[in-house]
Structures are given as C-alpha cells and as structure tokens.
Amino acid sequence: MDNEYAVTEFIIVVAVLVLFWSPYDPLLDQVEDFTASSCLTLVCSINQCSITTSEGLGNSKVGFHPIHKRFSGFHASQCGFCTPGMCMSLFGALVNAEKAARPEPSSGYSKLTVIEAEKAIAGNLCRCTGYRPIADACKSFAADVDMEDLGFNSFWKRERGRK
C-alpha cells in the first residue's frame, strides 16, 4: 500500500508543563512573549519560535535565576513537580511587566504588581507545599509589595548579611 503522505512521529519530552514562548509577529514586526502549556501546544505552532524552559533560565552549571533563588529562599518548593511551571509562569509575567509603561522600580524589584504576580501562578497546581510560600516568592518581585505581608523566608536574611 502506497501512502501519499509520509508520517513522521515526534516524541517531545518536556519536564516543565509551562514554557515561555516567543513567536515573531511579522505584521507587527516584533516578538510577542507569553507562557503556554507544553501539553497543549502543537509542535507545528512552535516552528521558528524561541522556547525557554526553567532550565533555560538557569541551572547548577551556569547559575540559578533570581526566580529560582527566591523560590528556594521562601521555601516554595517541596517535591519540585510544580516548581518549573510556577517559575516559568512568573518569568512570563516579569518579562511582560517590564514592557509596561510604568515608572522604574527600586533596585531588586520589577515593574510587576502584586496582583499580576498572584495571577501569574493562578493556573498552576501544587499538591505539597501550599500556596503561601509560592505566592510570597512571586510577590517578592513586585514593586508594590508590603514586605510585612510576606511569610517566613531565608532569602532576605542572607541578602542583608552580605551588605
């Protein structure tokens, strides 16, 4: 039996359920940045797009991204299954917030707001840690965060000790 079409199987293993996707829009002549579920993204839709996973942000060989460091400092990971997706969702929110026409924040903060930080991780599920330390780690990047509302963390103590 002859087939007119050759069928090729692609097996893609992605450890993170959320990835940062940057397709080029030729009509606007710019790169759009957003997060997408790797389970629901068709392979053909990522052709010629930049894809970043949590490991692309940082790792033990090249150094960890500040998002990874904050998650660690705020004890926002237990089993680690949801952590890459949470990190990538927050990264997407941070990148998009930096593009917003807002005043420059103080050093160590971003243009992200507390509400945007909370919305960024709203679609991610965690069975182990609970959402308080995860939300606190995310909100710690926000320019409008009230530091007294953040829970226990070791991140701030380490940073103060270095100065």
TrEMBL record:
It comes from the Eukaryota. Keywords: Membrane, Molybdenum, Transmembrane, Transmembrane helix. The keyword NADP does not apply. InterPro entries: 2Fe-2S-bd (IPR002888), 2Fe-2S-bd_dom_sf (IPR036884), Ald_Oxase/xanthine_DH-like (IPR016208), Beta-grasp_dom_sf (IPR012675). GO terms for molecular function: iron ion binding; oxidoreductase activity. Pfam families: Fer2_2. Residues 53-139 form the [2Fe-2S]-binding domain. The chain crosses the membrane at residues 6-24. This is [2Fe-2S]-binding domain-containing protein. It comes from Hevea brasiliensis.
